[in-house]
Structures are given as C-alpha cells and as structure tokens.
Design brief:
alpha+beta, 16 helices, 18% strand, 6-stranded mixed beta sheet
C-alpha cells in the first residue's frame, strides 16, 4: 500500500484549518471518555491524519536527590520496547506503519505525542498504551540511551551557553530542584537502574494528572473509546511529586564559570511572573520590545546594530509551574563582556524607568497578534497548543480571546507593569568563558 508522508499531510491539514482566523473558525470540543478521561478535540476530516499530544504533571524537577536525570532517561526509553515487543520490534512497527511516537521530560511535566494515519490509529493506540503501561527497560536499550545522554552531558561541559545556564539556575534556585539540570549529572545517570525508571512510571503516569489534546480525523464519539484504549490502563491517581514553590533569589551578583573558549556566554535573570499573573500579557509586550523581538528589539539595536558587540542578543519570560524568571543572554569576545553587560543593564534600567514607547507597543502588539497562528504549522503543533492552554487554565475560548487580550492593553498599563517588574539591580549575571578581572566564584554543581 502506498503511504503518503506524514509531514506533507500534516502541513496540508494545517493549511486548510488555519489559513487565517476568519477563513475557518477553530472549533474545540471537550470530550470525556466512558472511563472518565478528558481531552480537547479539534476535528478535521480533510486529511486522514490523527495527532495526539499529552502531558503528566511532575517532570525532571521531581527526580529524587541522587537520581537527577531519571525522568529524561525514562522518557527516552518508552519507545524502546514495550509488552512483548523488544526495541527493534517496537521501532520496526512504528516505521512500517508510519507512526510517529515521541516522549520528553521537561522541568515540570512529562509529555508525549502521537501522529498516525487514520488507517493505523487503532494499532497506534495499542503501541502507545503499551509504552505507557508496559515499558520494558531492557538492558541493551537502557545502556544505549544512557550512553547517548552521558555523551551529551560530557559535551555540554565545554559549552559556554550550557554552563552559563546551569550556573544561573543554581544561583537563583539554590538547594531546590529548579536549580538542577533537567538532564541530570554524569554520576546520577550512570547509577540509574531499570527499577528506578519503572518507579517513575508507576508514580507519575496516571489519569488524574493527565492533559490531552487531539487534532484530526476522528469524531467526538470515536475519541471517547480511543482515549480509554490508550490511557485506560494507567493508575487512577499519581503519587504526589512534592516540589514546593521556591522563591527565586535576586542576588544581583556577577558570577563566572571559567572555560578555555574564545567567546564568553552571558546569561542573566531576575524574578519574573507566573503564567496567571495579572501583569503577564503586558510583560510579554514589554519583553518583545526589550529583547524578545529579535531584530527589532532594543537589546538587538543597542548591542549588535550600534556597537557590534555580539551577533545576537535576546530576552524571554519563562514562567514555570512554581516560579517565574525573566532571562536575557548573549555571546561575545571576552574582552567585550564588560561593555556588553553595561549596555544590557542600561537598556534594562531604561525600560524599567520609562517603559516602551507608544510606537513600540503598537508594533509589538501587531506582531504578537499576527504571528500566533503561524506557529500552528502542523496538526501536532495544534495538539500541543491545546494541551498548553489546558495546562495554564486559559479557557476553551482562549484562541478567540487572545488577540483581544493584547489589543485591549493600554500603553500606561504596559508601562506600569514594566516599572513594577523590571529591576536591573536584581539581575543575577553569569559569564562562562575566559576569566574576567576579580570575578566571584560560581557554584556549578
């Protein structure tokens, strides 16, 4: 049987669904299975494709002390054999049937996605269910995936950006799981056993902490039993993962990680908003003007265009489940680090004092509203968006309301939010590279 490539079908389906907001309304249905599993569905029968995205609460931050990296290793092995199928047989079925199945471990959640042709969706459901409920963690697969992670960890030891990010997280979240790498450590990953990985699956993969988004060729009536076929074998309740809310430290210090590299990486952060903070949308506008808007941002203009200090510079808001940070970063020659820091901190200070101009706000809002649908370039991306909306409890009408939320913000509301949140004195700065004069020592564990 001739099989059409999934990527082409996914893009075609997305094009039909999301050419413009006015071209076709995005209708989201809430479906509850006979077994009580809830999901959001965007039905589209124009192409024979089904995309399913899901996540479970409790990601890498929930790894026990001494088992850092457990979540990442476990997720990397879920598609490496399950039930009666070893790794070769399991992966062979996925390839033969053109089924895409993937898993990932973020800081706060474990996630996965399934993309399948309609004709193969029943077998796809069986394979996904096996991966979630009967993973094998065979010795050969475990050592192969472990080796890949260890190689990556070793490579990151000499990467300035990776080391700067790790040191920054440790500085602002000391003695807390948010201060650790989501990839774990060489020692911890080396020591993890199949029993450790099975313990994570038993504790975290459960129905009560599950979010699901589905897009494609399936009706609401068909989806209910389909959800039970995939997730019905999971435990009803997860074990409490126990990550407590940490206040990020605003230590306002310059820390250094010494590396023998020609360019230094600079990363900095101050406390930022959670996703449900009333100032969140206003601060997204502020961040776009400050450094999130790439070539049009103030940081890009000041750091690269006017002074040629670096090739690129950026800022971003990162709201996690328990705390938020406002990041910025760049890479430059070590001799130009002091000037780069001075320029970035001055831009931070000016934005805190004055906020963005009316013209900058107008351009930022136009971009934020107009670019959003361009992210939805596949059924898989749309399914992930449905899960993200549920995760942040934004409401089923969020896609309809989103433009209005940004367009209703007044310039003064946006400038007030900038004044409340931006604090250049609170920036914790990490430089990874050649030594600067009299740096403070960074903790990189």
């Amino acid at each position: 049987m001739l099989k059409t490539p999934l990527s082409a079908l996914s893009l075609a389906a997305a094009a039909l669904l999301f050419l413009t907001p006015a071209a076709k309304a995005i209708e989201i249905q809430e479906v509850t299975s006979p077994g009580g599993i809830a999901a959001w569905l965007v039905q589209d029968s124009s192409n024979p494709i089904l995309a399913l995205s899901f996540s479970f609460a409790g990601g890498a931050a929930s790894d026990p002390d001494g088992q850092e990296g457990r979540a990442g290793l476990a997720m990397g092995l879920l598609s490496e054999g399950a039930g009666d199928l070893d790794a070769g047989a399991f992966r062979g079925e996925l390839e033969e049937r053109s089924i895409r199945l993937s898993f990932d471990a973020g800081r706060d959640r474990l996630s996965g996605s399934l993309v399948t042709l309609t004709a193969e969706r029943d077998r796809a459901a069986e394979l996904l269910s096996l991966a979630l409920t009967q993973p094998r963690f065979d010795a050969a697969a475990l050592e192969r995936v472990r080796g890949q992670i260890l190689t990556d960890l070793k490579r990151r030891e000499s990467q300035p950006n990776s080391q700067a990010a790790l040191a920054l997280q440790a500085a602002v979240f000391p003695d807390h799981p948010y201060g650790r790498s989501t990839r774990g450590t060489m020692e911890a990953v080396t020591a993890l056993s199949a029993e450790d990985l099975q313990a994570l699956v038993d504790a975290r993969l459960a129905q009560d902490n599950l979010l699901v988004g589905v897009v494609g060729d399936i009706s609401a009536e068909e989806l209910g039993p389909y959800l039970d076929a995939i997730f019905g074998g999971l435990p009803a309740e997860a074990v409490d993962h126990g990550v407590l809310p940490p206040p990020p430290r605003a230590i306002g210090a310059l820390l250094q990680v010494e590396l023998a590299v020609p360019q230094s990486a600079i990363m900095m952060a101050q406390p930022g908003p959670l996703r449900d903070d009333p100032d969140y949308y206003a601060l997204v506008v502020v961040d776009h003007v400050l450094g999130g808007g790439s070539f049009t941002s103030r940081l890009f203009q000041e750091v690269r265009e006017k002074r040629g200090l670096a090739y690129g510079v950026w800022s971003t808001l990162r709201p996690m489940d328990q705390a938020g940070l406002w990041y910025a970063g760049t890479s430059t020659q070590t001799a130009r680090v002091p000037e780069s820091l001075e320029v970035i901190q001055e831009a931070w200070r000016q934005m805190a004092e004055e906020g963005p101009s009316d013209a900058e706000i107008e351009r930022a809002v136009d971009y934020l509203v107009g670019s959003f649908l361009l992210r939805l370039t596949s059924s898989e991306a749309i399914a992930r968006t449905l899960v993200a909306i549920q995760r942040s409890d934004l409401g089923m009408d969020y896609l309809e309301r989103r433009a209005e939320i940004y367009e209703s913000l007044t310039p003064e509301e946006i400038r007030d939010a900038a004044r409340r949140w931006l604090d250049p004195e609170a920036l914790t700065v990490v430089v990874a590279g050649q030594p600067l004069e009299a740096p403070e020592e960074a903790q990189t564990n």
